[in-house]
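Chapter summary example.
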Amino acid sequence: IGGHLNYRRLHNAKRRILSVTFFEVTLTSLLVGTACYMISGGNLQVSLILGAIATATAPATVLSVFREERAKGLMVKTALASVALDNVLCVVIFTLVAATVTSDTIAAGQGIWPPLLNAGFKLLLSVGAGYLAARVLLLAVRAKVIPPFSGLLFAVLTTSGGSELAGISPLLTNLVMGVALGNSGRDSEELLGALENLEPVVLTCFFTLAGVDLHLSSLPAMGLLGTGYFVARALGKVGGGLIGSYAGAATARTRLGTGATLLPQAGLAIGLVVIVQGDPRFPPELVEIITNVVLAAVVLNEVLGPPIVRRAVRYAGEAGKDRRRLVEFLQEEYILYPLKTEDRWEAIRQLGEFLIRTHGLRDVSLDELVESVVAREKTFSTAIGSGVALPHARLDAGPEIVGVMGISPGGIDFDAPDDESVRVIILIATPEGYENQHLEVMAAVAGLMSDPEIRAHLLTARSAAEAYEIIETGSKADYNHFLED
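The structure predicted for these 485 residues follows.
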């Protein structure tokens, strides 16, 4: 799940993702903590621990539903990143809270800071260990010392066991390793997929083991406290997701469903309960309360959560979209809004820099790319009229045709045949050997931009997310078809 925190893919969505995560984590912890405090008669330990555990979302469940639905889109991207972040925050909050409520130094009147500093130090160790493991793995794989599959499997097992021995969080360590791998270039992103063939087996084992721990007999023990936990958590996740979506300027189709995708709860919550059960500093009566409440709530969330996530995905229109298309680069992360220049050549340079950065290209320099585009532009203008231009370049090598879109609210003089200022520019770069596909892609993009409805809506878009949604849903003709169809 850490691999989904890829800045190259999330840079256009960071405001939306951070906003959703902040509001859903904050609101969930506050609502659950307050509800449990009132229902338990003022038991601060219970309310703090349950408030921390409630923030966790089950990444395996959410990811599994998205995979089953073959879902892809703005809401799916936001949900996966938010799940990764709220699990990081859950580990951090739980570690700090547990250190505080079980500390002997507080009971001895020595203050709150010693346990907090100790817990913070362990969190930093987890982050450092995860980052170090990612760097060592990348060096070994790139040097061909070890193949990707064996390397990643060895790294996961080593960091997990090492973290357990060191007394730090193996969950946070592995999540940080995934984040570090996901942000170290295109080859490391591919490395993250090395264990994909094992995922069905791992997920099956996980849900089997989770089912063993989820006793239906714990439901009656849930009582009023558990009911308050379950209801307050649902309100926090859905309400926080909705508020965060509005604050983060999410599109209308994704606002309602984002919070609902964060309802499942299993893996991390069960893991934290196990930690509570194995920590002698927690009183037995506290352990019993937390175990009954959390496990009973997990049963309900794992039964009700997946169908709600599935419904949210279908409501947002993102089911069945995770399939390869003729034009793969018309995604939110490859749209630059606004393009802040009125000069044709500067616009090409800005888009060239944006293309290299967002696609993680290493085999071409910015000057080489711009020179290729400018040479064609000086021969003939690539403006096709109606405010659209399709500049393109040739690359010496590359795995696929790549491209980016820039939207200029003010317009740019592109020497268009209809003398109209260009406001939508799509820069396409084609590697050697992709000439036939290049013609298909150019025809698809030109056809897409020839649609007056899409063009009109793009000119009024106020963000990269809106532009993506317009392209994805506004076309009446299937210009950018799925290659599997």
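To summarize the output: The chain has 20 helices and six strands.
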